[in-house]
Amino acid sequence: MHLQNWLRAALSADWQNGGFGIYVHWPFCQAKCPYCDFNSHVSREIDERRWLNAYLAELDRAAAELPGRVVNAVFFGGGTPSLMHPDTVAAIIERIRKHWPMPNDPEITLEANPGSVEAGRFRGYADGGVTRISMGVQALNDRDLKRLGRIHTVDEAKKAFEIAHSTFERVSFDLIYARQDQTLEDWKKELNEALCLAIDHLSLYQLTIEKGTAFSDRYEKGGLTGLPVEDLAADMYDVTNELCERAGLFGYEVSNYAKVGAESRHNLIYWRYGDYLGIGPGAHGRLTIDGVKYATEHFKMPNAWLENAERGRGEKIRDALSGTDQANEYLIMGLRITEGIDTTRLENLAGAKIDTTALTHLTDLGLIEQSGSHLRTTPQGRLLLNSVIGELIY
Ligand SMILES: C[S@+](CC[C@H](N)C(=O)[O-])C[C@H]1O[C@@H](n2cnc3c(N)ncnc32)[C@H](O)[C@@H]1O
Ligand SMILES: C[S@@+](CC[C@H](N)C(=O)[O-])C[C@H]1O[C@@H](n2cnc3c(N)ncnc32)[C@H](O)[C@@H]1O
Ligand code: SF4
């Protein structure tokens, strides 16, 4: 087959099933934030050369079993991948390109913390192939940044954002709301300010108290006061949807807002239940090999991963997913996004019809909408997502 026809065929085959992406996890941070339960660690000694070789070895291993795929998106997450040297990032991108074709305008995102050191590396990342920055701003007032345990100030965040904006066409940032002592008016003001800065994408998360974090310890001892009650949090969510929409950023997922066409392609692969290769400590993946879809997970602790990757396999778990597993995962991911799911695909995966009594009940409650084989949650349904999923799960 002519190369271009092959590329088109491979792209469309993957695309019908949600696309194919690559996730690279860098597990280190300068300091641990008290709310964060992501796989992140503070370490003084990092032999970056060794880490690079381990990532490259994992890519080589994966390439042998994933031929003929087209990489729609790459995502460097963490931890704090903006602590990686630009040459390390460039070498990983180069190896990905060596193994798999990419479209002409690939989305290659790197998560960055908004410190000045990180901002100094932005040019290098762009030269190495990064096309999009996702910045963890978290709050637009210094008192709350401190309370969140962040080591940057609002001023530094704004400066880093400006540098990112002048270097990359696509820049998004994250904010955490429903914070201690935050009123609805405070959040409206902060969000309006964020919307003035924003280019075409924002991730807006409600603060969650995750088990095993410093915030959770403090919360259980009664030391984390002033968190919003459920009604206020729901009002904050409504206001978020309203203000973002007015600014032309549409809520395309529970916590993600974008102009049409500026959605995160990498994250859409997850939510459309596509395939993705995940490499690095604790990274997970979903890979279809010889018609079987697998859930994969890499060794979680940085040193355990590094040593295993050097010995030939950083992947710790590989489980074949049954049709029911896949249907449930597709449902859980797909109902997060505004575009929703295709019930024909769902029923084919499950080998069984969807529960029509539950559908009628949820439609009557205004939590879902259906048209033909197209099923999606309403904004109210996305707020009560766990209940919706609970009723529809196989
Ligand atoms: C859910 S947050 C989203 C951040 C930001 N708003 C964005 O979308 O660019 C991204 C984080 O999720 C985790 N993550 C994403 N994909 C992953 C994967 N395949 N395996 C393990 N962790 C992953 C990483 O900790 C990553 O930093
Ligand atoms: C892995 S972190 C981002 C990476 C980057 N190191 C940073 O902190 O800027 C992914 C995002 O998830 C959000 N997040 C993490 N923990 C959260 C929590 N407990 N509640 C709400 N959002 C949280 C934050 O907005 C954060 O930017
Ligand atoms: S929020 Fe980001 S910087 Fe803070 S510990 Fe988690 S991954 Fe590291």
UniProtKB/TrEMBL annotation:
InterPro entries: Aldolase_TIM, Coproporphyrinogen-III_oxidase, Elp3/MiaA/NifB-like_rSAM, HemN_C, HemW-like, rSAM, rSAM_sf. PROSITE patterns: RADICAL_SAM. It comes from the Bacteria. Residues 14-253 form the Radical SAM core domain. Its cofactor is [4Fe-4S] cluster. CDD domains: Radical_SAM. GO terms for molecular function: 4 iron, 4 sulfur cluster binding; coproporphyrinogen oxidase activity; metal ion binding. SUPFAM superfamilies: Radical SAM enzymes. Its main location: cytoplasm. GO terms for biological process: porphyrin-containing compound biosynthetic process. It is found in: Cytoplasm. Gene3D superfamilies: Aldolase class I. GO terms for cellular component: cytoplasm. Keywords: 4Fe-4S, Chaperone, Cytoplasm, Heme, Iron, Iron-sulfur, Metal-binding, Oxidoreductase, S-adenosyl-L-methionine. Belongs to the anaerobic coproporphyrinogen-III oxidase family. HemW subfamily. Probably acts as a heme chaperone, transferring heme to an unknown acceptor. Binds one molecule of heme per monomer, possibly covalently. Binds 1 [4Fe-4S] cluster. The cluster is coordinated with 3 cysteines and an exchangeable S-adenosyl-L-methionine. This is Heme chaperone HemW. The gene is hemN_1.
